[in-house]
Amino acid sequence: MSFDAEAKMQLLFALRSKGVTDKTVLSVMERIDRGDFIQGYFTERAYEDMPLPIACGQTISQPSVVGLMTQALQVTPRDKVLEVGTGSGYQAAILSQLARRVYTVDRHARLVRAAREVFDSMGLTNITAFTADGSHGLPDQAPFDRILVTAAAEDPPGPLLAQLKIGGIMVVPVGQSDTVQSLIRVTRHADGFEYDELRPVRFVPLVEGLGKE
Ligand code: SAH
After folding, report:
1. Using one digit for the tens of pLDDT, what is the confidence trace for 30-88?
2. pLDDT tens digits for 151-170?
3. Contacts from 39-42 at CB under 8 Å and sequence distance 24+?
4. What CATH number belongs to 3-201?
């Protein structure tokens, strides 16, 4: 078995052992190659269950966290999904295999450009990536069936709650500091929001305004 094939098998094993049990999510993660979203020196570590640095001082999330968040989002094939925090584009590519349409936004234009190139090269035509401050959501495309935030906010941002359909689900890391955050699942019901605390996580912060590059 090649080094890559062996490393990919190890990654799938790590995902399962960390609680990613949804068969559809696992099969998508088997298909979408994380190595395509990492450039340079760190490509050789693409199949380790670790966050890794990407451009603009950001990170591509740990695969098991991507799996757990995707699983918690309960995406169905008819869903229109918003992801806040495109980063490398890895999470958006996974969502694109589960949803009808994915909108993804990042405050760094450089990351959005690089992610678009990967989406194009993989033929992922149901993803639209924008450079925008995602804490305001995407009013023109709202409402969404699912919203995934991959940067940590102090509270679930109000505009995102407002852009969630009734019956919709949002998954968001929430915390007062860079070190202690909790992954929260918000479900919107006709008469209000239900909050479930899922697990401790550690994400880069959700920052207001656009990045310099
Ligand atoms: N989902 C990504 C990892 C995201 S890292 C992946 O699969 O690789 C978090 C990302 O959130 C960073 O790229 C950062 O630039 C972005 N971000 C932080 N605050 C933001 C905001 N207000 N609006 C949009 N993107 C934001």
Report:
1. 999 999 999 888 999 999 999 999 999 999 999 999 999 999 999 999 999 999 999 99
2. 999 999 999 999 999 999 99
3. 39/114
4. 3.40.50.150
Residues 6+ apart with CB under 8 A from 160: 82, 84, 135, 137, 147, 149, 170, 172
Is the model's pTM score more than 0.70? yes
CA 87 to ligand 1 centroid distance, Å: 5
Decide whether any atom of ligand 1 lies within 6 Å of the 63 Cβ: no
Report which ligand 1 atom has the smallest distance to the Cα of 85: 11
Fill in the amino acid letter for 82: L
Testing ligand 1's pocket by substitution, the residue of 54, 58, 111, 201 carrying the most ligand atoms inside 8 A of its CB is: 58
Instruction: Report residue 156 as tokens.
Output: 């679930």
Could you state, in order of their start, the residue ranges of all structural domains in the chain?
3-201
**In angstroms, rounded to a whole number, what is the distance separating the alpha carbons of residues 125 and 123?**
6
